[in-house]
Write a structure and sequence with these properties.
By secondary structure, this protein is of the alpha+beta class. The chain contains 4 helices and 11 strands; from the N terminus they run H-H-E-E-E-E-E-E-H-H-E-E-E-E-E. The protein has a single domain, classed as Clam (outer membrane lipoprotein receptor (LolB), chain A), CATH 2.50.20.
């Protein structure tokens, strides 16, 4: 279960923080502070015989990320500047794991200049189709993150230092503000 929380944190945090080609386009796209959509995540772990797959919906609202995993298990997660939480029958309980509140705040506030402290960023393409390659400046257990899209993110691919990979695909994005 800790692996699931960790990867949702990194995928959504990094992918939401790098949504378009250049700063002018980012300012226009990120004028929307409330949006939602669907996702599917496939994790190929070098230690497991078959890939793990997760599907669900997400919503960004009031500097909070809400994730509802629908398959293969049902789970609700909330990420905000104070941590990662999972929903119980009564309320949200804090998940005690790795969480960087500064990185989270940079992502939800679209502070790209500060994110460059953590990653070397390579942009290619144009507004119709672009790719971003992120290479961590420090050892965080990830070798590379590749993101592609058009007017929003289509997919995120992460290759970990141990050889495991993760592919996150977004669809049906709706801007609600």
């Amino acid at each position: 279960m800790k692996v699931l929380y960790k990867y949702f944190y990194w995928f959504f945090l990094l992918s939401l923080s790098l949504w378009a080609m250049d700063m002018d386009q980012l300012k226009e796209i990120f004028s929307h502070r409330h949006f939602k959509g669907e996702f599917n995540l496939e994790r190929v772990d070098v230690n497991l015989p078959i890939p793990m797959r997760f599907d669900g919906v997400f919503e960004i609202k009031n500097n909070q990320l809400f994730i509802q995993v629908k398959t293969p298990l049902q789970m609700n997660l909330k990420l905000d500047s104070t941590g990662i939480f999972y929903q119980t029958t009564e309320d949200y309980q804090r998940f005690n794991g790795n969480f960087d509140p500064n990185l989270f705040n940079m992502a939800v506030n679209f502070d790209f200049l500060s994110l460059e402290q953590y990653f070397s960023i390579r942009l290619n393409g144009d507004k119709n189709y672009w790719t971003i390659q992120l290479i961590p400046r420090q050892n965080i257990g990830i070798n590379v993150i590749e993101i592609d899209g058009d007017n929003f993110i289509k997919s995120v691919f992460v290759k970990e230092a141990n050889g495991s990979t993760n592919t996150l695909k977004f669809s049906l994005i709706k801007f609600l503000d």
